[in-house]
């Protein structure tokens, strides 16, 4: 196949065309990459050994080594099975479920339902079991006081000191 443009164009004209085209392609690629990165940070992602989607009901069922991530809310979960109900924006995780938020707070149960639009978890245990939730709550006093500071005993003043020889306390 012959391209008449290249026959009549000089080498410098072709070089100029590439100098213009390459930055435009690079900008388009960088915009695509930033959009993909933004979607990756806000997308609720479910990975599993097997997944099945029903386009009529809008239900996606994932089974086997299920891992759910939702970076926008710092949520990670593992389970044996997950079902995503797209119309209700609801995820039902079943089978030895552990959900971790912010890397420290966690909830463990047999079944955990996550209401995506509300940001709410509903947990149910196995029969004769309990749901376990761990919240790391920072203590304000400990957070504001350095662990290495120590006050000498002689500087500690009692909060209630009875004063002698005062008109109120004879």
Structure keywords:
single chain, 170 residues, alpha+beta, lipopolysaccharide transport protein A fold, eight-stranded antiparallel β-sheet, 3 helices, 36% strand, globular, disordered N terminus
Describe the structure.
Strands 1, 2, 3, 4, 5, 6, 7 and 8 form an 8-stranded antiparallel β-sheet that branches. The chain has 170 residues and is of the alpha+beta class. It has 2 domains: 4-42; 45-143, Lipopolysaccharide (LPS) transport protein A like domain (lipopolysaccharide transport protein A fold, Sandwich), CATH 2.60.450. Strand 2 and strand 3 form a beta hairpin. It contains 3 helices and 8 strands; from the N terminus they run ααββββββββα.
Low-pLDDT stretches: 1-8, 14-32, 156-162
Query: What is the N-to-C order of secondary-structure elements (H for helix, E for strand)?
Result: HHEEEEEEEEH
- The structural class is alpha+beta
Strand tally is 8
Largest sheet: 8 strands, antiparallel
CATH superfamily caption of the largest domain: Lipopolysaccharide (LPS) transport protein A like domain
Topology summary:
Blueprint: H1 4-8, H2 11-42, E1 45-47, E2 50-54, E3 59-70, E4 75-85, E5 90-101, E6 105-115, E7 120-124, E8 132-134, H3 140-144
Antiparallel strand pairs: 1-3, 2-3, 3-4, 4-5, 5-6, 6-7, 6-8
Describe what is shown at a glance.
The protein is α+β, with helices and mostly antiparallel strands and 170 residues long.
């Amino acid at each position: 196949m012959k391209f008449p443009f290249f026959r009549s164009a000089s080498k410098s004209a072709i070089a100029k065309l590439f100098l213009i085209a390459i930055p435009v392609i690079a900008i388009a690629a960088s915009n695509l990459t930033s959009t993909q990165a933004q979607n990756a940070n806000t997308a609720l992602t479910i990975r599993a050994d097997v997944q099945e989607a029903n386009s009529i009901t809008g239900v996606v069922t994932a089974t086997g080594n299920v891992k759910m991530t939702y970076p926008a809310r710092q949520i990670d979960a593992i389970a044996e099975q997950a079902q995503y109900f797209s119309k209700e924006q609801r995820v039902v995780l079943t089978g030895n479920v552990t959900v971790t938020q912010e890397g420290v707070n966690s909830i463990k149960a047999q079944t955990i339902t996550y209401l995506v639009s509300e940001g709410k978890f509903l947990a149910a245990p196995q029969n004769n079991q309990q749901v376990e939730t761990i919240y790391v709550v920072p203590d304000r006093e400990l957070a504001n006081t350095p662990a290495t500071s120590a006050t000498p005993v002689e500087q500690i003043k009692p909060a209630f000191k009875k004063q002698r020889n005062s008109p109120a306390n004879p």
